[in-house]
Structure to design on (532 residues):
């Protein structure tokens, strides 16, 4: 039997402490998510509703199939910055007329839906997901264009939006724009470059320059409707493909467009009927210790995530700090790489490289579960070839062509983040648990390194070393790194696709695997030179 056994005792004192710590982090996360509903401010929301308009998440809910899930992406973009939480844009994946689609929706209650640097960054990530997984892109547009005070940060990179839309169309990936209000200046090109455009009577306004700018630039006096109203674009310019009477009608037309796309999934299919795990997903709250210096067994996580808790482990007695093996998740085959005791040695790196090659041979998607402090350091390990063996693993990850999914459960430090397919290595999706931490190294180690360097510099210069100043520096650095390692800080910079409740891991990964199946299988991998 390959069904995993569990040695985890959810009633133990350690498990209860772990659970309490995780629930506290989830409560903090819920408080941040609650802020998203209020980010535009009560006055802006009331003014929007007084105009008879729906909020962006309400529009999305009506667009989706009844009871269909919506996997919101990067909801905490801009967290910890001077910009509004969420980046004034809602993005995610939902099912419309049976088709998985990437959906983006401007939030007009936040500075009129104007784009700031985080809006742009968040939208780029949504475009990447649409391209990599060949998902139709539906843009729910209501934006005044660029947030002008931040133009220096968005004008140059913002041009990628136009490139993305045209490249998606050229690749045969449908782009659909439903225009609910103003779509001005650069924002006018979203409908202008989309395959299908729906505009709403007396609501949609699409123009490169509004009446004030036209008057300043040319002296011409024109009103909104004659310059860029839905009626004009439907009857005169031809920009509008469909003419809706109101928001609900626009959403209906958007759904009909998707229904006529003749979309099919060419990728990986479900190979077996899904079977639930044999252990309670609720216990995932109690597995990761509050102190990440304490190890935990990732098999306990897998037992509560994969189908039937069934896992065929590969090389179980070799390189035991990395667990590798085969499983099914919601019926989809996967290969798993999961950190066991944090540190990656030469054996783990070589084991990983071989396993990744095998997954590429069988065209099996890979799931990376992080809890690593990085590759082992020290004279013995340098002499044993840790650099070349780490490079072997990173080479395999970088050139693997099967889809990768990544979940940060605990620590994700140093080059271990790279070897385990962190964001820089373009996994199809990357999610984090509230317990995750990621940085170049742990805060104590980083502060200690700076202290050692400062002490050596003082000795070399022949000056006394200020112990009090060193202690203050170490405390300040530790606090800074601890803050910058937090999942909300990293999610705010769109370094993941969202922080998820551990109990939802199986569902989220199942949705991600279903999304991946929209793209055909990629060409076999071509690996670089493996140093021996």
């Amino acid at each position: 039997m390959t069904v995993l056994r569990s040695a985890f005792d959810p009633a133990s004192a350690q498990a209860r402490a772990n659970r309490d710590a995780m629930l506290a982090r989830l409560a903090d996360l819920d408080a941040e998510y609650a802020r998203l509903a209020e980010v535009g401010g009560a006055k802006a929301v009331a003014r929007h509703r007084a105009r008879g308009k729906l909020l962006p998440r309400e529009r999305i809910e009506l667009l989706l199939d009844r009871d269909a899930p919506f996997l919101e992406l990067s909801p905490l973009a801009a967290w910890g910055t001077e910009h509004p939480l969420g980046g004034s844009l809602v993005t995610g994946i939902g099912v419309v007329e049976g088709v998985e689609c990437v959906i983006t929706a401007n939030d007009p209650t936040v500075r009129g839906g104007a784009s700031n640097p985080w809006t742009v960054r968040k939208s780029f990530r949504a475009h990447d997901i649409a391209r990599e997984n060949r998902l139709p892109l539906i843009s729910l547009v209501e934006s005044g264009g660029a947030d002008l005070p931040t133009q220096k940060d968005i004008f140059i990179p913002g041009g990628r939006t136009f490139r993305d839309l045209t490249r998606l169309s050229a690749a045969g990936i449908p782009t659909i724009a439903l225009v609910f209000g103003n779509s001005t200046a650069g924002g006018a090109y979203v409908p202008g470059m989309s395959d299908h455009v729906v505009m709403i009577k007396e609501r949609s306004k699409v123009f490169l320059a509004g009446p004030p700018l036209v008057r300043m630039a040319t002296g011409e006096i024109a009103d909104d409707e004659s310059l860029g109203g839905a009626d004009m674009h439907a009857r005169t310019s031809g920009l509008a493909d469909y003419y809706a009477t109101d928001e609900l009608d626009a959403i209906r037309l958007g759904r009909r467009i998707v229904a006529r796309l003749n979309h099919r999934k060419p990728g990986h299919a479900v190979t077996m009927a899904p079977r639930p795990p044999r252990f309670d997903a609720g216990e995932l709250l109690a597995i990761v210790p509050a102190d990440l210096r304490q190890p935990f067994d990732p098999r306990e996580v897998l037992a509560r995530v994969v189908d039937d808790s069934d896992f065929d482990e590969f090389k179980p007695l070799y390189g035991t700090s990395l667990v590798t093996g085969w499983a099914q998740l919601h019926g989809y085959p996967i290969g798993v790489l999961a950190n066991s005791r944090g540190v990656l040695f030469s054996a783990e790196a070589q084991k990983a490289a071989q396993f990744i090659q095998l997954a590429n041979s069988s065209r099996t998607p890979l799931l990376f579960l992080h809890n690593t402090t990085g590759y082992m350091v020290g004279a013995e390990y340098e002499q044993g070839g840790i650099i070349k063996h780490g490079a072997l693993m990173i080479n395999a990850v970088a050139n693997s062509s099967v889809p990768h999914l990544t979940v940060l459960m605990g620590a994700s430090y140093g080059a271990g983040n790279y070897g385990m397919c962190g964001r820089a290595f373009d996994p199809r999706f990357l999610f984090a648990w509230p317990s995750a931490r990621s940085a170049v190294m742990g805060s104590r180690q980083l502060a200690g390194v700076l202290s050692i360097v400062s002490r050596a510099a003082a000795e070399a210069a022949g000056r006394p070393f200020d112990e009090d100043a060193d202690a203050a520096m170490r405390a300040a650095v530790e606090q800074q790194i601890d803050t910058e390692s937090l999942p909300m800080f990293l999610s705010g910079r769109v370094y993941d696709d969202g922080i998820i409740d551990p109990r939802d891991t199986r569902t989220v990964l199942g949705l991600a695997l279903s999304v991946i199946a929209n793209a055909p299988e990629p060409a076999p991998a071509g690996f670089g030179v493996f140093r021996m």
Notes: The mean pLDDT is 92. The first strand starts at residue 70 and ends at 73. The two ends are 36 Å apart (CA to CA). The first helix runs from residue 13 to 36.
